[in-house]
Amino acid sequence: MKLKSLLAGALLSCGFLSANAQTGPYLGIVSGYNSTWVLDQKLFDDPNYDSRSTWNSAPFGAVIGYKVNPSSSFQIEVFKNNMGAEFDIKGSDTFAGEKKTVGEKRIELKYTSVPILYKFTSGEKVRFNFHFGPQFNFLSEGSEVNQINERTTLNANLSSTDFTAADVALYGGAPASAIDVEIPTKSVVLAAGTYNRPDNITYVSGKKENFNSTDIGAAVGLGMEADIVSNLYLSANLRFYYGFKDIRSDKWVEMEESRGYYDSRNNVTGGFQIGLHYRFDL
């Protein structure tokens, strides 16, 4: 009887120690690649632009976490993250001419991203995981430029375009015609070159001060983990992020609101992340 009790106790102890061996702190390194968008309905509807697929890297980062039990973990990541969007610019030789691609708009944003995540894990050597939590992004560089490849005429000074009356005054309107004498105020002529947006915010055109210094949103993802050797494992995840804040500065937003062009401009990303991690069992 005593022998059976000892054996039972030993088995239970082994099970307890095995469960405890799946808890403790862990460290890791990660890298990712994402499809990135800047959601702004006004920009999508703008006759001067045509959205195109944009891909950016989150090239390197670090992870620190704690596995509370075999299925629950909390982790903080810190990684460099590139966001933004690209658009074809659609212009014409004359105000009413046929539209063609004459250049590209690039919104380029570089952040240090810090997601704080809860992670649920199921399985043993090969595991499924689901994770979610808030993500904080701190801007290091930001710019929006229009790269024009040839002299072109674009729509301007309308509630449907991001070119304003100030742009018309700065760059010049298209020649007037007897058919439509308002053409000079409804278009802008640009020579080939690179143009900061918005040029009519003169205090720091094209610099990161035109953008919010922080972006806050929600991250959610799912994926797999697989042990390489004891306590060392690989991760492969799909990760999605939606930003809650307008990426632009308050002054830029006020300018767009004053002329009826405003719609919130938010970061969105979706892609994959791979990592290598080591857990320190307690």
From TrEMBL:
Alphabetical list of SUPFAM superfamilies matching this protein:
OMPA-like
**Annotated Outer membrane protein beta-barrel domain residues:** 57-247
Keyword tags: Signal
Signal among keywords = yes
Q: Which residues cross the membrane?
A: none
Q: Does the keyword Signal apply?
A: yes
Q: Which InterPro entries match?
A: Beta-barrel_OMP_2 (IPR025665), OMP/PagP_B-barrel (IPR011250)
Kindly provide the name given to this protein in its UniProt entry. Answer: Outer membrane protein beta-barrel domain-containing protein
Identify the species of origin: Adhaeribacter terreus
